[in-house]
Amino acid sequence: MGTKEIYELTTETGKRIETTANHPYLARTKLLKESDIGQQQSNQRQSESNSHSGVDIKNVEFFNIFHNLNQDAINNETIANTKSPVNITNLFAPFTLEKLGTINAAPNQPADKLTNKSETTDDQAGLIDINNTLPQWTKVIYLNKGDEIAVLSPIGSVLNGSGSPKRTDPNGELQFEKIISIRILPAKHVYDLQIANTHNFVANGIVAHNTYINSTATTASVKGLEIAQSGAITGTGYGLYAAKTGASTTNVGGYFSASGATNNYGLIVGAGNVGIGTTGPGANLEIYDSAVSGNQILFTIGSNLNTTAFYVDEDGDTSLDGYLRLEASQTALSSVSVPTIYNSNSGDLYLQARTNIQKNIHFATYNGTAIGTRMTIDNSGNVGVGTTGPDAKLDSLATTEQLRLTYTDGTVYSAHTVDSSGNLTIDNTGTKTIIADDLQITGGDILDSNGNESIRFGTTASAVNEATLTNAATAGTVLLAATGGDTDIALSIDSKGADALNLNGTATGDVNIAGGYGGTGCTVTNSNGNLSCNGTITGTFAGTLPWSSIIAPTANLSLAHAGYTTAFTFDSLTSADAFALSSTSLTTGTALALSSTATAFNGELLTLSKTGSSGSTAFTSDIANVTYSQTFNGGAGLDSTGNVLDLSRAITLNNVGNTHTVSGAGVTVSDSGTQTAGTLTWTGDTMRIAQNYTGANSSALNITTASTDAGTSNFALRVNDDGTFTDSTPFVVDEAGQVGIGTTGPLSKLNVYGATNSNVLLNTLSTYDSYIDLTEANSEANGAFGNANSGGFRMVYDGGDNKFYLNSATGVTINTRLTVDRDTGNVGIGTAGPDAKLDSLALTEQLRLTYTDGTVYSAHTVDSSGNLTIDNTGTKTIIADDLQITGGDILDSNGNESIRFGTTASAVNEATLTNAATAGTVLFAATGGDTDVALSIDSKGADALNLNGTATGDVN
Fold it and tell me: Which residue, among 163, 119, 157, has the nearest Cα to 141 in the 3D structure?
């Protein structure tokens, strides 16, 4: 099989066969020496085609030699692969089995071992002597012109000397015909051929030997078939190529088997990468399966329960001491535990034991002395390190340190050790153990370094959690203090909510504050609750104050506090007004007047505040409520002209030579919050102004400034958005009524400024339009854009057709000047439906490219026929690169063909100089004002230059 040199044999009656040099035929050859038959030439031919015998045969016929010839067709399925050497039986006269004997096909051999009679018949003592020459199976390479070859001829086709048929067998007759011609043909691809049952066949009437290969040699290192390819090949060379195709029940591309020896190897690959499912293996063994559901490697253990299913050996001695070993070690096949390594659909890697039995996974290593189990994963999911029976999800067993948590530098760590008493020691290379969240200690204490109780935690039967500071020494002092190297460290002890803070609540000793009464500070005497202090007591007084004498005063009440203050505390008050001032007859006076005549005033005359460190209910009331509520039920002159709240500042400067600057705000409204825990969401307005009159003819907010100073900080309105009052890019309305967005110095009626970009967003719902009108008249006075006396431009985004339009208006006429299609990106000039990236619609010139001086240009115009005219103020159009004209001509100024470009059916591109006038002259010449200008016409390469090649005129 493969590509071989082909030999064509022709007999004297015209029978022909094409075959390889190595194929044997039954022939009678001349008795010549090896030198007479060209042994050297034959061996050379043999070396070229020796690696395989094959034939390329048409019209092959099977036959059991000389008896019951079969006329079946050969195909891949009828070629057996386990047949014995050729054995010819049932021979009829003039040949019999006893006369011819058994014919064996010797195995293929290297060319340097062949002789001119490499295949001969066995047991030929009884062969018939035909013309004193014995018939032998002889390879084509040893046949010569004039040798006789066995053929099977139809009845009567070969005549004897008297002109009558030699014999009249109904199936044909065996003859020997001379070879009149041996020709070597070009090489072609050929195949092995083995004939079932008979092991011989007839091809084109010529008897051919079956090439089935079987060796019964008993010498050492014998090769039943040796195939070698050592030639230098450009591309891919195959030493052996086997393929099986066709619609069979089972196709086997190659089958290798070995048996009967002490060591049997079905296949050994000595060198080179092996690919299964791939023609380009990138490793010693690469298995590839393009099907997602295909099995790439399947190891079937079979009935031997101790068989190693898969192992990677370390040193090649097959002692199973390799790096990876998967094997069965159970007593019954149904319980074989073969671990599985696989990837899940998510890409995770799994090492999994058999799913139908409950077993553990052990990891063992060798320490130089013995193999020991280092880690175990049991069937419940527990992981054991140093133990094969883990009792928890992670169980680390050791007599010393069981767990170490190490920082990435590998030098600092936290060591965790459990001693023989069950105590856990955490020993850090650092100085502390940090617990980020709560620490709950149940049924235990915190001890000092000596093992004595320092803080005891416990839970009583009443479920009251206690943290008790304890000390083993009687009459000792338990110290709770802020310590450390830093100064000014406060210590805070608080109860929660409204519950009391108990200091010595059950003991009999006094409570000392800041050292106690005997030194500095105060003492609360436990027996009577009296407070005694060595120092000054300041603050508020919560005792009883006798106000009975001023319940109904008969004259003005004046309290002269001098440098003292008065505080009113209403701790037990829950719903009534804590401090009420009321009058039923006050008409022009002031119910509450707060005033100060001090010249240097830095305080507040009135402070309204609500404070508290914690709260458990929602805040829904007002800190300050100024309300004017009255019902008018008749009479004239009942108009309300007063202000509900009047906040004003009036300053008179009467100091010559001095400057007085007013910088404080007239009114400051501040709304702020601090989030330390939880989520703080602000949805209320800092200031809300509501105009609730349905017939109002006034402003909800009216702001005015009387200043005419054009300074950069003179505004009627300013809105800051950075949390300060000094934003450099606020929203302002200056003293001239100009609006600035992002700028404090608007240069026009509306000035939008951004440090990186300036955006103006106009939004509409659904398919409505958004537009901006730029008019030269007051559109409001005339109705709308495009009305009489209203001329200008409108920029429109049409939400219906998703296009941007630039329209112009002169009176009542509106024209679309520019269109941009949102979806396609097409731009139209003079059209609302652009069909290209730039579509300029006009009856005359549609595009002009103008030089920077504004006087010279190139005009581009498309007429009603679709012709493009480029009219330059210059004298030429310059094309810097190639000009490709497809399917058209170059015309002269009269519209006549001047140069024609075309492509013929033979795909030869032509450029033809033409002219419409008969007998006219087509001029191809170098022109211009310069002299001595050459004209060069060249063909390409070695092809000829044709001048008047097909015409009949002379060449001048």
Answer: 119
